Every structure is written in structure tokens, then in C-alpha cells.
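Hi X.,

You mentioned you wanted examples for the new student's onboarding notes, showing what a folding record looks like when two proteins sit in one file. Here is a clean example. The first protein comes first, with its sequence line followed by its C-alpha cells.
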Amino acid sequence: MKKLRTIIYLITIIATLYYVWWKFVPAVDGAYSFGNGKISWNLIITNGVLKTINLENRITGEKLEPVFGSEDFVLRVGPTNSIGYITAKDANGKDFFPVIIREGLIVKSSRCLAKWFIRGRNKNTLVLEHPASKCKIFLDFIVEDDKPWIKRKLSLQAFYGNVLAVDKTEHLIWNLQTEFKNGGRGQPVFLNNSWFAALDHPASSNYFKEGKLILKQFPGYRFEREKLPLQTIVIGSCSNGFAKQSFWKYINNFRRAPRSVSLYNTWCDMRGDKLTSENIYATAEKIKNKLSVHDTKLDCFVVDDCWQNKKSIWKEDFRKIPEGLPEMFQVIKSKGYKSGLWLPFTGVGLDIKWGEKEG
């Protein structure tokens, strides 16, 4: 029995070492292909530099080929202590004051070095480094069995001891000789009516301009040793003339069944000094009683503007909500509602001058 346990133990160790040896390998020069029977993303590493050769539509045999000058990603990364306002000109020549990483570096795929290849069944990862900005870039290529689309998720990690931020991410800039339709905020771009391409996020910016396919976001996040996942590219292939239908098949693959949602928002009749927890509770109770007569109920009760202390970073005004937000939400929940809270990330509704003084 002891001998059997020893054999099992040794087999387990050998199997684990073999798995690690198989899964984690250096990213050497050569061709890399990720896909299934309907689509494949084909890349090559040359002198340590990764680039896309093409995407192959295995349904029609068509290839989407980025030409000279294309980049698989372009980021602006830099130290968090350099975040601040700059003066810039808008499209009409007027001054505006965006917040950016003032000491940020432009990180292009063509300036990164491929270091590791992490293999898997449905997800394969290429790890790149950009020493000048002190960050690593992880590209996860994700394929589903027999689905005519492929995803690529981009994540960032700072070198040990560094605290970085990213404020602009073009997930790809491909020069393409192709026809296109559609595009815009949260909308896919249809290419040759046999492909769709987009960032898988409703606030993404996807467009085709001057022969370039650009999928872009403005994350505005900091990151350290813990990986920061950004938005995910999805590119799908289909038979000629069916790009829109193929995109909807992708959406229907994960969308929830539609249903109606009833919502009340305090902006309807509680603004300024009228917004107090006392009035919120009275209104919530009144709505509950009125709807119960008709054997129905409200789904969500949303507290809109005027709940916040303007001289704070989104803290409640205890003069209006003395019990605090957590207790207020519990009372709303006790009425049978889900809670919502108005919270614009632009800082609208706060005292910006107070914020500037506080740093």
C-alpha cells in the first residue's frame, strides 16, 4: 500500500510538472493561430514583436488583412501622480480642459516585446512587456466551440513597485481595404457585410474612418500588480451579406429575456430641499398602497439629485438623510423595491472649487 501511494504521488508530481511545462512557455518567434472551424485569428511574432497577419472567415474563405501601419493596440500609460488638466483645442478651435496622464507614454503593440505564451483549451494568452512604461500587457484570445466569433480581452499589470494609470485605449487600429457600414458609440462595425467588429461594451467607440478600423475606450483606471481587465474585442464572421444577422446571433447568445421594469425617480417631484428621507419614505409608502389596489408593484425606487453633500466626494447630506444611505436603502427595500441612486461620475452636483482646494 505504501509503495502504491508513493507511485501515485510521483505520478501526480510528474503530471503537474508536465501541465506547467505545457501551459507556460516562452513566446518565441513564429506563427500563432487561435480559432475554430468558423473563424481564426492568425498572428506572428518576429524579433519578439507581435502583429496580426489576418483573420480568416472559414465559412467563406475570406481574409481580413491589416496592412502596413496597423497596430493591435495603442495605449496611453503613465504614473498616477501626473494625472491632471491640460489645455487643448476642440474641433471648433475652442479651448477645453481634459484630464489626462500628463506624463503618459504611448504604448504601441509594435513597440512591445512578447514574453510568454499561456496555452489553454478555449483561452490562449500572450504576455507582452513595455519596459519604458513599466507595464505588462495580457492578450486573452477566447474562442467558443463552433461559434463564428472570437474575442480578445486586453489586461494591464504594472511592474513590481509601480502605480500606473491608463486614460486612453485603442484596442486596435487596423488599416483595411474593405467596405464598411454602421459604427458609433456601442455599435458594431460591419465589414464587407461578412464581418462584424466591436468592443463588447455599450459605452465603447467603434468606427471606420479614413481606411482605419478603430475600437476605442477611455478607461481612466489605475493599476498595480493586480491585473486590470479592460474592454473586450469581439470579431465575428458569417456568410456574405449576413453581418447584421450574425451580430444579432452573438447578442442573443447571452442576452436576457426582455421584461418590463417599472421605476419611480425622485426628480419627478422631489428637488432641492424637498428631497429628504422623510419625504422619500412617505412617497414610497404612498406608491405601494396605490399600486396594491391594482395587484401590482413598483420594481425600482431611484433617489435622484440633491441627496449629496456638495463639499464631499459623494457623501450623503446628513441634514436631509440623517440616518445615512445604508439605512435609507434598507427602508426602501422593506417596501418591496430595489434601490437606485443618481451618481454622475463627471462630478456634476458637487462643489468643484471645494474639490480643487482639497486636491
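Then the second protein repeats the pattern, sequence line and then C-alpha cells:
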Amino acid sequence: MRALLRQPAIETLLIFAARADHVARVIRPALDSGSWVICDRFCDATAAYQGAGKGVAARLIDELAAIAHPGLTPDLTLLLDAPPAAARARVASRGAKLDRFEAENGAFFERVRKGYLDIAAREPGRVRLIEMMVESVRVHMLSSQHVVILKDSERDRYLPIWIGPSEANAIAMRLQGLTAERPLTHDLMVSVIAALSCSISRVVVTHVTDGTFHARLYLEAADGTEAEIDSRTSDAIALAVRTGSTIYVDERVLDEAGVEPDRDENGEESDEKLAVFREFVNSLDVDLEGGEKGPPAEEQGS
């Protein structure tokens, strides 16, 4: 049996056989009774470990899932992301003997992590990452502070983020299709990343603390490995609009800081909530998006 488990395809078949039995005996009866079901892993784990990690074809995994648990997909998946080195350190700190998965090398876990993040990118509604687009860059009329407004790609939901003037101009220039005569800081960063045969796969606004937003950049190297880099949100967005990288926001950030018109029982937007939202937007003078002032003569610190 141990020899068979070393063959990824056979391992995958056995996993789905066990999952089909578990679904039939435990999960479906619980769902039919109206209970909530929480699993520590499901089909996404197979796609990440056996698919991305060991090279089993995604089509085979999808077909086996349709046989083992037809029509059964989690409503919500919580992805707890951590760099593989940090995860391995936690495992080692337990002092226990490693199982056959934990004993895999670092490259394997890099592929597994990328597999999970790719699933999150494809299904942000289920995996609690929301794809956003840059709606505009504006200047608040009363305070003269700059703000970038991100919009949910699927819903009428917005996230305003206050940023510095130089980052605001860097984002706005790209939105307007303008190019500086000499590379600005974010242009230089994009060139350096490309020269190192890397690319920015995505940007994620991860959390907000005391009004400060935090973001992560995900760099993918030519060999498929991925690095995660802490970043100011404004810098991350400025790089994303230059590279065409997808911008995601953790749904908890939107729950805390997002703006969305309420709807009444008839599905219409609430006049009271809309009035608040319109008041906020109308207080933001369209300064950079329309190009009235243009980029500064030289880069300024924020």
C-alpha cells in the first residue's frame, strides 16, 4: 500500500474513494438535517496537494469530484495563508515525527501554496478574497487629501483608501495612459521585477488596523516559485495598474471599511444609505482622474 501511495494518480483515487464514503455517511445526512458542516479540508486540498503539488491533471480531479460528491461545493472556504518556511517551522516546533506530506521538500509546498492561491483567485466569492478594480483617484475637497477608490468587480461596493500625493499621481498617470519622460519609482520597480524574470501575480489588501490598510505583493519567479512581500497598499495598487495584476481585498476589510448602498425589501437601494454614499462621493473633487492638473514636475514624498 505504501508503494501505491507514492503514485500520485493512485493516491488521488484513494482520497476520492474515502471522501465519497465520508460524504455519504456523514456530510450529506448532516446537511439534510439542516446542520452546518465544517471540514478542515475538502476538494480544494486535493487540487492543491495532488494537483499543483504532485502534477495530477486538474481535469481528472474535477471529474472525480463530480463522481464522489456531485453538486456538493463548500459555500465558504477560509484560506489561512502562510509562507511555507513559516509553516515548516511551526511543524518542526511540535517535535513530532513528520508524516509523508510534511516530509516533502520546500518546492513541493511552494507549489501547493500557489495551488491554493490560484483557487482563491479563480473563486474569490467562495474563498473570501474579493476582486477589485481601481474606480478612480480623487482629492477630498475639504482636506485636500488624496483617495483611491476600489470597486468590487461583481457588486456595487466600494473601498476608499487614503493615500499620499505621489502615489495618487502614480496611479492616476497609469489610469490616464500617461508615461513620464524618465521612469518614476513604480516604473523602475516594474522594470527591476521583469529584469529578474519575475512577475506580480496578484495584490491582496489583507487587513486594516486603526485606519491603516495593509497589503501583500505576490511575485512569481520563472521556476514557478512565489514570494510574498509586505507592501503599502498605495504602492501595491500603483504596481498592479502598471502590470495588469489582479487586485484582491479580503472580505473582512470590505465588511469593516467598504461602502455599499443598502437595499430595501423590494430590492431597491435605500434612499438614506444612498444619500450618505452620494454625499461622500460628491465631497471628492475629481482632480486626477480627469487630468485637470496632471502629474507633478518631480516626484514628491508622501
